[in-house]
Write a structure and sequence with these properties.
single chain, two-stranded antiparallel ribbon, Four Helix Bundle (Hemerythrin (Met), subunit A), mainly alpha, 2 strands, Arc Repressor Mutant, subunit A
Length: 279
């Protein structure tokens, strides 16, 4: 079909609108791609320039095209495009957030296992027991989020590293504010429960390697759950308009200018924090 002359019966404006819309979809034109000049579109479609101009106005009103006077006609940025871009950015931020959690929490667990006193372990056990109780239905997710965060913070304190202590506020924010997102993922409450039990057991046994490994597995699992959710949301955004975000193509000729129309365990839930998420 491409830019072949229009021969289908019916309203000329509707036929031009449909043709341009199909061309945008079929060629996978991204937001910002420029269409051929109005004069060129009229020539290729075998219609008058006023007919093309009227169709462009209709598509602009529908949010599919954007006319920049003196520059030309461009594929418009849709709400779906914006959602897709935000989700793409969120995925990058999530990866960075979880990378930092690994950097901070793995050594913290190792040092906690090496340095924990009996009193430290007893306090961690109390926190874990309270968290276990909060995981039983009906779940108070706000309370669970606080207890889950407290469990991680206690391990950092047990590491007894003064420089690591300086990160407590940032780490607490990273862990707590986004948990609602992953807590609602089916199965995450139970997975986190098992993860926390393994972390506690390793710390209580003073097994530094096992504690670091358990924390790594816990954070990695939360990362996977968070990214899977983001990607599902991105797929949903793609399905909303039926347009696959293919490589954008650039429009042919430049703009005419004068007429102005030419030319993306319950404990470690992922949460968006300024574009990031929590585990």
């Amino acid at each position: 079909m491409a830019w072949d002359p229009i021969k289908e019966p019916g309203s000329l404006t509707d036929r031009i609108v449909d043709r341009i819309g199909h061309l945008i979809d079929d060629e996978g034109l991204d937001a910002g791609a420029r269409l051929p000049a109005e004069r060129e579109m009229a020539r290729m479609l075998g219609v008058s320039r006023p007919a093309v101009r009227e169709a462009v106005k209709v598509l602009e009103a529908r949010g599919r095209l954007m006319v920049r006077h003196g520059q030309g006609v461009f594929v418009a940025r849709t709400a779906v495009d914006e959602v897709r871009e935000r989700l793409s950015t969120l995925e990058v931020n999530l990866n960075e957030l979880f990378d930092m959690r690994l950097v901070l929490e793995e050594p913290a667990a190792m040092w906690a296992a090496e340095r924990a006193t009996d009193d430290d372990i007893a306090e961690l056990a109390e926190g874990l027991a309270a968290e276990e109780a909060a995981r039983r239905p009906p779940i108070d997710f706000a309370a669970l989020r606080e207890l889950d965060t407290a469990f991680h913070m206690q391990i950092v304190r047990m590491a007894k590293n003064r420089f690591l202590q300086q990160t407590l506020g940032v780490l607490q924010e990273m862990i707590s504010s986004g948990m609602e997102t992953t807590l609602s993922i089916p199965g995450r409450v139970e997975v986190a429960r098992g993860d926390h039990r393994r972390i506690f057991a390793a710390v209580a046994a003073h097994d530094a390697a096992a504690a670091a490994a358990a924390v790594h597995a816990h954070i990695a699992g939360a990362r996977d759950a968070a990214l899977a959710r983001v990607r599902r949301d991105a797929d949903g955004a793609d399905g909303a308009d039926g347009v696959d975000g293919a490589d954008g193509a650039d429009g042919a000729d430049g703009a005419d200018g004068a007429d102005g129309a030419d030319g993306a365990d319950g404990a470690d839930e992922v949460v968006p924090v300024d574009g990031a998420a929590r585990c």
